[in-house]
Amino acid sequence: MPLAFPPDASRPPGYAYDWALVDVETSGLVARRDRVLSIAVLTFGPDGVQSGEYSTLLDPGCDPGPVHVHGLTAERLRGAPTFEQVADRIGALLRGRVMVAHNAQFDYDFLAHEFARARLHLPVDRRLCTLALNRRVEPPVAGLGLAALAEHYGVPQTRAHDALDDARVLAGVFRASLAEAVRLGVPLPLVACPPRQDPRFAPKPPKTPCAYRNPGRPASGGPLVQGMKVAFTGESTVPRAELVARAVDAGLNVMSSVSRHTGVLVTNDVVSGSAKARRAIAEGVTVVDERAFLGLLERVRPGTLHEGPAAPPTAPAEAPAPVAAAAPAPPRRPGAPYAAKPFGRRRVLVLGGTHEEASAVRARAVELGGTAAINLSAGVTDVVLLPGGERDRRMTRVATLGIPVHPREWLGAPAAEPAGVPARGTAEHRDGTAAEVLPRGGVIDLPAAGQWHVAASWAQQTGCEIDVVAFVLDGDEQVACDEDFVFYGAPESPGGSVRLLCDGPTEQTVAVDLAALPPAARRIAIAAAIDGTDTFGDVGAVQVALAPGADAPVVAQATLDAATSERTLLLAEVYRRGPRWRFRAVGQGYDHGLEALVRGYGVEVE
Fold first, then answer.
1. 3-state DSSP: the chain helix, strand, coil percent, rounded to 5?
2. Three-state SS for 572?
3. Mean local confidence (pLDDT), 331-335
4. Would you tell me the crossing angle of helices 163-184 and 130-137 to the nearest 10 degrees?
5. Phi-psi region of 252 (alpha: psi -120 to 50; beta: other; left: phi over 0)
6. Would you say residue 524 has pLDDT above 90?
7. Chain-centre distance of CA 147, in angstroms?
8. How high is the pLDDT of residue 95?
9. Which residues lie in Low complexity bias regions (predicted)?
């Protein structure tokens, strides 16, 4: 089936590329560890006509993993080529084309690792995720899985989790999604892909987590206690690796940097001028030499295991005072019924006005029970026009689509929604509930384990870049190691419990595996920072959505409006309160840049 556009929008600029549609079946979910078992690649030209098709099983040289999912047993794969044997052919199909996949970062990461193992360059410069594209389009479906989208768009699916059939289904979904993007004028979420040909780009091995709480600093002349944070700097007689291993075996928490929570810095040259030594002196951290430390290791006292209630989360000590947050809303269970409100089925897009005026309108729409949109999509039911909004380029599409346009006064006394009449493009969950719309400071309870995705998105920008970051924090509101700071240059924490996923130029997601977090983890703080002098007043609202998976229905969402001057915005947090995990929409802004926030959480900044 060709990737045809509507008759009046044939090959519009910005939508016509050479495409390579890809689907892989894998032995697991971790690209640096698991292998590709089968792959299918379909190629299309800018005119939407298919130009090639290739698929093959692959011998991974390992256990094929969840056979009940993909049906690929070791017997079926025996005798198939290895990835290295077909890498050149796959590379030829990908070269010069935009790679398209559903949850594209997953497929891209697996291909990047397979090409790296073959010591070849993955020839993909840009990719497009149909999951991210449909988040922008917002079709009226509860979930955005490939099967749900195929059903919605009328694409037949015969063998789920078969690479070739899934690639053909992907082609149908992509065709329909492209047509919707053209109709709505939605820009494609193309992602630039830097070269990843070095086989050493895999994340570092995880740090051994400490099982004990931090008891604080040792008393003057007193012993060490299990859980105390220890750092090393400078040359040593005993190899550093051995010192670290002995400290870990004793139950101490070895850190890669020094903060106010560090118990001891071990160095044979306190006047060396190293960054750690300077910070230790400034913070009053106990400094001992190697010989004294080895003596202390012989009488480390028992500590307290990580268990029981955690302290309430606080802002980093070194950061300026945050913007006052709204009082936390009482937590509720995902899927609980919601009270009926006048705007219960409306999704409102605000055009024009100053940032403060638009923020007030979005807040009013949420107060009335609706949701605030940040981009034009199929889910938008109403547009509120503020001064200057008539010049917005999207107004032409709004008129074409027949979306009602209202003045600001419309929010003063809105009419109630007609009973039983769904609004345009909205989607309820199958149990009749919808995503919870959280106010700033709103809290929702989470199951004790499982994978959760926190997605942040904003309106298309031309003048600035926004980076989403995450910090895995302990009870002292500090990272356990620098690698617990997750950002674009290090997109995975040790052990892979927290990962940064890039879905497009205006969408980034933090994936959190609660079951895989180290025992010391008490909070995952998720923030956004602007690179440059622009502020979130220039950017506008940031939307945060919580879902139990990449393509699962959204459980909760919030639209966050910072004040005009902030360059860093604390978006959300996933935190532990006793045995339960919770999610909070935060929306606290800081005038400083990302570096101050990073230092406040104990990350050593080069």
1. 25, 25, 50
2. strand
3. 51
4. 30
5. beta
6. yes
7. 23
8. 95
9. 316-327
Q: How many CB atoms lie within 10 A of CB 243?
A: 20
Closest CA to 21 of 116, 118, 133, 114: 133
Crossing angle of helices 104-117 and 83-94, in 10° steps, is 130
Amino acid 472: pLDDT: 94
Q: What is the DSSP string of 403-458?
A: --EE-GGGGTSPPPPPTT-PPTT----TTS---EEPPTT-EEEE-SSSEEEEEEEE
DSSP character at residue 275: H
Q: What digits encode the pLDDT tens for the residues 505-517? A: 888 999 999 988 9
Which position has the token pair 């339960």? 580
Q: What contacts 420, CB < 8 A, 6 or more positions away?
A: none
Mutual orientation of helices 163-184 and 146-153 as an angle, nearest 10°? 60
Q: What are phi and psi of 34, to 5 degrees?
A: -90, 170
Q: What single-letter DSSP state applies at residue 302?
A: P
Phi, psi of 215 (to 5 degrees): -85, 0
User: How far apart are the C-alpha atoms of 478 and 482, rounded to whole Å?
Assistant: 10
What sections of 526-571 are H helices per DSSP?
536-539
Q: Which domains does the chain have, with CATH numbers?
A: 7-201 (3.30.420.10), 229-297 (3.40.50.10190), 339-432 (3.40.50.10190), 438-600 (2.60.60.30)
How many whole angstroms separate alpha carbon 562 and alpha carbon 328? 17
> Which residues neighbour 67 within 8 Å (Cβ) at sequence distance 6 or greater?
73
- The pLDDT assigned to 36 comes to 96
Higher confidence at residue 488 or residue 251?
A: 251
Q: Who wins on pLDDT, 440 or 469? A: 469
DSSP output for 149-171: HHHHHT---SSTT-HHHHHHHHH
- Name, of 274-283, 398-407, 411-420, the range with top average pLDDT: 398-407
The model carries a pTM of 0.77
Nearest-angstrom CA–CA distance, 210 and 435: 37
Buried-exposed string 543-565: b where 16+ CB fall within 10 A, e elsewhere: bbbbbeebbbbbbbbbbbbbeee
Q: What is the DSSP string of 40-107?
A: EEEEE-TTS-EEEEEEEE---SS----HHHH---HHHHTTPPPHHHHHHHHHHHHTTSEEEETTHHHH
For the beta sheet containing 580-590, the strands, ordered from the edge strand earlier in sequence to the opposite edge, are 443-446, 580-590, 568-577, 523-531, 465-473, 485-486
What's the maximum distance between 2 C-alpha atoms anywhere in the chain? 82
Q: Please name the residue that has the structure tokens 């008759």.
A: 7
Supply the mean pLDDT for the chain. Answer: 84
Statement: residue 336 has pLDDT above 70: no
* Residue 324 CB partners (closer than 8 Å, separation 6+): none
Q: For 169-263, where are the E strands, in sequence order? A: 190-192, 229-232, 253-254
The pLDDT assigned to 206 comes to 56
